[in-house]
Amino acid sequence: MVRGYSRARVMGHIIPVSVNQSLLSLLKLEVDPNIQAVSTQEKEQNETLNNKFTSFIGKVRHLEQSKVPETKWSLLQQQKTARSNTDNMFKSDINNPGRQLDTLGQEKLKPEVKLGNMQGLVEDFKNKYKEIKECADMENEFVLIKKDADKAYTNKVDVESHLEGLTNKITFLRQLYEEKIRELQFQISDTSMVLSTDNSCSLKLESIIATVKVQYEYIANCRQAEKHRDDCYHTKMEISKMSQNISQLQAEIRGLKGQRASLEASIADAEQCGELVVKDTNAKLAKLEAPLQQGKQDMVWQLWEYHKPMNVKWALEIGIATYTASCWRARRASWSVGCRT
């Protein structure tokens, strides 16, 4: 002001001075009631937030008392890119029944291989059974052949008896013929032969011719009988050979029947063993499926238990964030009120 006055004096005229009258008025030092209401409201909010914070702290302490959430929380904090140990535990728990199922599947393949071997044995047994059936058919044919052979043997016996009778008769006729020849020779030597043209000859040539003819027929029959005897002998030899073959076939049939019985018993045992193995494998699979399902349910339950503290943690973080934000707003409000005063 002095400088302005002196300058105005130097200039030769006075400059008027303007004064703000509001600055000359007295300051109002009264307290605004709205500020008190705001402060009380802020106090109430701080108290509610403190109560919530204390309740959250109590929940945190309650959660800290539990070891499982603490270990899981530590694992979650330590986890960066790798998975947690709980996942490995769950995977190991899940993979153990899978491994057991794989081992059971491999064990299941063993009975299938055994079953294939048994089926091969069954095919062999079927082939042997076919052979046995063929042997049975041959045995039936042998029975029929034996019947025919028995008939032939009876016929042979009849023929042999008839042949024996014929041979006896032939020998008797030969002896008779020789005796008659001797008698005739004796008569011829004692009597003198008288030749005449009389038809009533004492030698009776017609009767002699007839007897010679009869004897010739007997000789022919004898030759036929000898031939028949030779045929019967050959037939007898063939029958003996056939009887030997029949005895051999019967022995083979008995052996095949024994083999058939043993094979049927072994087939029954193999089928029973295969059924028992299949039943045992199915029972083991059922027993393993039950713990697998239980493991899945336990895994779901553990995941649910794992998410419970995580939800509480997120709620605590949200509450702490809201509490810090409200505290920060309260501080800013108090600072602004202090600046106003």
Automatic annotation (TrEMBL):
Localization in the cell:
Cytoplasm; Nucleus matrix; Nucleus, Nucleoplasm
What is the predominant subcellular site recorded for this chain? cytoplasm
Where along the sequence do coiled-coil regions lie? 239-266
Q: Which UniProt keywords apply?
A: Coiled coil, Cytoplasm, Intermediate filament, Keratin, Nucleus
> Could you confirm whether the keyword Transmembrane helix appears in this record?
no
* Identification of the protein by name: Keratin, type II cytoskeletal 8
In what residue span(s) does the IF rod domain sit?
Answer: 42-341
Instruction: Recite the lineage of the species.
Output: Eukaryota, Metazoa, Chordata, Craniata, Vertebrata
